[in-house]
TrEMBL record:
Domain Conserved oligomeric Golgi complex subunit 3 N-terminal: 105-248
Record protein name field: Conserved oligomeric Golgi complex subunit 3
Stretches of the chain forming a coiled coil according to its record: 116-171
GO aspect biological process, one term: intra-Golgi vesicle-mediated transport
Cellular localisation: Golgi apparatus membrane
Family: Belongs to the COG3 family.
InterPro entries according to UniProt: COG3_C, COG3_N, COG_su3
GO cellular component: cis-Golgi network; Golgi membrane; Golgi transport complex
Top-level taxonomic group: Eukaryota
Keyword annotations: Coiled coil, Golgi apparatus, Membrane, Protein transport, Transmembrane, Transmembrane helix, Transport
Annotated source species: Meleagris gallopavo
Domain Conserved oligomeric Golgi complex subunit 3 C-terminal, residue spans: 269-616
Length: 672
């Protein structure tokens, strides 16, 4: 344990006082035994000796040190009074020494008290300062809050003003563009192909659209009029550039070598190559006009003018060339009408397709004016072909023309490319109607002249001599065939009539009689038919694919009626020249031929006339119908011998049955 300096000093003082107290007690004991005078006579030497003898050496050292500490090392106690004084002083000193630590603690605590008082004063002062600061803070906070609110209000007002200014500036920007656009449009260096022209055009459109949507603005009509004027200037520049480009192309092509053939392939190729090469120069501008044509009438008007200019230039180039080409084709195929129609139509098909493709090089939206131009160009072909058509008298030529126009042109070409060949289709349909009209007209004449007005030659009425002669020829050929089996000519005596087969095939794709596919009798050859029957069937086969079903039905009824009348007349002549049976068999044979050959047409050949009431004979009709097959078989077996084996009763029966059934097939449906 380490003592502090103060503690060491106190310990030393206590030790000194303890030793001193024992010494004093010893002295007091001695003094009580001595009288007072002796006490006074005691010398310091005797005291010193006594003390020295009585006090140990360590105690003496302690006392010396104690006297030294009391500042009395040089003093001597010679009397009791000095001793008591010294003792009182010593006691006082001891009292002081004993209360020193308390005083020191008191002083120490007093120092703390003073410090606490100082701190308390500082705290009170700080509280006062804090209270003052709080008051100042509240004041400043109030002022700051007010300032903040004022600033926020100012910022809000500033933001509103900025937005208002921007809004006003945005609205004014459309009006301010007027001067810039005017300056650009009035500039002599402005070109429609420059990079800034299309953006300027877009800005001009935006300005016009914005001003048009705000008629409540000040000076609205003035600015709208000025912007419209700028738009008209821009449209005029576009139109002028495009029109000049197209006109320059046309003038360059028109000034080509005059010695060149105007309708040659090279000339037509040049017409398209030059225009295709120039298309990119104006396509971008035309596309801008097309995109805006639905929004503003000014653009639509300019687009219409550009369309008209383009089509005028194309007509100026193509018109003479097409006319000369058609004239050349006419001179080359003057006698072949079908070749002329086919080549002329093929030429116009190429022209229409090429014109549509060239138009798409310049424009992106279609126009009906192009088809109007192509129809006008097709009229040059129609004007040449129509006079030729109305002078054609042969049904074969007219029917072939109908097939070319209807099948090759309309069905093959037009249906596969209806969009590009719409104008061509209109011309072909008009031409087809003319051909059909001419065909119907010539058919009427043909029926009157070649069927009704037919005058039979003696050979046409040589029945049954012709049949017997043909049968004899067939028999002789068979005999020769048996003698020469290795020869392939007339094998199996298959006397087929290719003309007859073609006749049926031209009328329909199917044949109802299997005898056309197998060996037939010489009497059934096409050449053995009565001429009016042959002509009627040939005429119907030509008409079947060429005209409408209703028209064909009417003509077929007329032709069949005329044919039946001619057969009746021929049968009467045969009956007069030969026998009545021969005439009736002739009539039955050809009525059956007619019935068989008109079946593939699938047409109602009934003639609508006043009907007859045959209710009483209905049972007889049913009986005849059930026995018809057997009668036909018997008739066919008899034809090989030229109808010679038929009895008069059978002949009359066949005549009645044939006439009744054929007339019923031509009879009009009963009407109430």
């Amino acid at each position: 344990w380490v003592r502090t300096p103060v503690q060491q000093e106190l310990f030393f003082q206590k030790s000194f006082l303890f030793c001193l107290s024992h010494t004093i007690l010893d002295l007091l004991c001695v003094c009580e035994q001595l009288p007072i005078e002796d006490l006074c006579s005691l010398t310091s030497q005797s005291l010193t000796v006594a003390l020295t003898a009585a006090v140990p050496e360590s105690t003496e050292d302690v006392l010396l040190k104690g006297f030294a500490m009391l500042g009395m090392e040089n003093e001597r106690i010679e009397t009791a009074q000095q001793f008591f004084s010294w003792f009182a002083q010593l006691q006082t000193q001891m009292d002081q020494d004993e209360g020193a630590k308390y005083r020191q603690m008191r002083d120490y605590l007093s120092g703390f008290q003073e410090q606490c008082d100082a701190i308390l004063n500082d705290v009170n002062s700080a509280l006062q300062h804090l209270e003052s600061l709080q008051k100042q803070y509240l004041f400043v906070s109030t002022k700051t809050g007010t300032l903040h609110e004022a600033c926020e209000q100012l910022l809000k007002e500033q933001s509103e003003l900025v937005d208002l200014a921007e809004n006003i500036q945005q609205k004014l920007s459309y009006f301010n563009e007027l001067e810039n656009i005017n300056t650009k449009l009035n500039s002599p260096t402005l070109s429609v192909n420059s990079e800034g022209f299309i953006p300027m055009l877009a800005k001009l459109d935006d300005c016009i659209a914005y001003i048009s949507s705000h008629p409540n603005f000040k000076d609205y009509p003035v600015y709208l009029t000025k912007f419209k004027q700028c738009l008209l200037k821009a449209m005029h520049l576009i139109k002028t550039y495009t029109v000049n480009t197209l006109q320059n192309l046309t003038s360059q092509l028109m000034k080509r070598d005059p010695s060149a053939v105007p309708n040659s392939d090279n000339a037509f190729t040049l017409f398209y190559v030059k225009f295709r090469a120039a298309a990119p120069k104006v396509r971008a501008l035309i596309e801008q006009v097309e995109q805006r044509s639905e929004k503003m009438p000014e653009y639509q008007q300019v687009l219409n003018e550009i369309h008209q200019c383009y089509l005028d230039q194309r007509e100026l180039l193509l018109g003479p060339s097409i006319s000369s080409t058609v004239t050349e084709l006419t001179s080359q195929n003057n006698r072949d009408h079908c070749a002329l129609v086919r080549s002329g139509c093929a030429f116009m098909v190429h022209v229409c397709q090429d014109e549509h493709q060239l138009y798409n090089e310049f424009f992106t939206k279609p126009t009906p004016k192009l088809d109007e131009l192509l129809e006008k160009l097709c009229l040059s072909l129609y004007d040449v072909l129509r006079p030729m058509i109305i002078h054609v008298i042969h049904l074969e030529t007219l029917s072939e023309l109908c097939g070319i126009l209807k099948n090759e042109m309309l069905e093959d070409h037009v249906q596969n490319n209806a969009e590009q060949l719409g104008a061509f289709a209109a011309g072909v349909k008009q031409m087809l109607e003319d051909v059909q009209e001419r065909l119907v007209y010539r058919t009427h004449i043909y029926i009157q002249t070649d069927i009704i007005g037919y005058k039979p030659a003696p050979g046409d009425l040589a029945y049954p001599d012709k049949l017997e002669m043909m049968e004899q020829i067939a028999q002789s050929l068979k005999e020769e065939q048996k003698k020469l089996p290795s020869e392939a000519s007339f094998s199996d005596v298959r006397l087929e009539d290719p003309e007859s087969c073609n006749l049926v095939k031209s009328g329909s794709a199917e044949s109802l009689n299997p005898r056309q596919q197998s060996t037939i009798s010489p009497a059934d050859l096409h050449g053995m038919w009565y001429p009016t029957v042959r002509r009627t069937l040939v005429c119907l086969s030509k008409l079947y694919r060429c005209i409408d079903r209703a028209v064909f039905q009417g003509l077929s009824q007329e032709a069949l009626s005329a044919c039946v009348h001619s057969l009746l007349g021929a049968a009467d002549s045969i009956s007069k020249n030969k026998t009545q049976v021969d005439g009736q068999l002739f009539l039955i044979k050809h009525l059956l031929i007619l019935r068989e050959q008109i079946a593939p047409f699938h047409t109602d050949f009934t003639i609508k006339e006043i009907s007859l009431d045959l209710k009483k004979t209905r049972g007889t009709e049913q009986l005849l119908a059930t026995e018809w097959d057997e009668i036909i078989l018997h008739s066919c077996a008899s034809r090989s011998s030229g109808f010679i084996l038929c009895s008069p009763a059978m002949t009359c029966m066949l005549v009645l049955i044939s006439c009744a059934l054929f007339l019923f097939s031509l009879e009009r449906k009963p009407t109430n």
